Amino acid sequence: MLTAQKRKFALALMSGMSKKDAAIKAGYSGKSARSKGSQLAKDPEVIAFIERKKNEVIEVDDAPACRGNVNTPAENVYTPAVNTGEGSSETERYYDDPIEYLKAVMNGKEPDDPGRRDSAKAMLPYMHPKKGEGGKKDAKQAAAQAVASKFTGMAPPQLVVSNGR
């Protein structure tokens, strides 16, 4: 009987993974994955499943049967707005803040360029630290200062010596 783990192993093996990696992806222990991968590769059920999948013919319809509305590139063409800055003939806007760019992509004002989006996400921690970001020492120091400000004593009186005058 072909179990779910064996099926996952076979699919991972078909995708080009090594036997060990396919066994790990299927959910087997990393310690025994090497031997289990070798065992499963020789299993007649797994071999039969892989052969069935290789001989399977995939039919693709041009139009989906269940819905008529399909997002195709010809229908959803993005036309970027022209930057209105002085002397600018560029079609894309330039942002100094990565959050502004990500908001523009989210709201559909900018095209979703994966390279620019990933760059903006990588820049976020350098320009906008997370709230509460800081170590234990910083938190301890802040708590100590808050407590110390409550219990500070009065300043000692200034002594003025007249030296007999």
From TrEMBL:
This is Phage terminase small subunit. Residues 65-93, 106-143 are annotated as: Disordered. The lineage of its organism: Bacteria, Pseudomonadati, Pseudomonadota, Gammaproteobacteria, Enterobacterales. It comes from the Bacteria. InterPro entries: Terminase_Gp1_N_sf (IPR038713), Terminase_ssu (IPR005335). It comes from Erwinia typographi. Residues 109-120, 130-140 have a biased composition (Basic and acidic residues). Gene3D superfamilies: Terminase, small subunit, N-terminal DNA-binding domain, HTH motif. One of its GO terms (biological process) is chromosome organization.
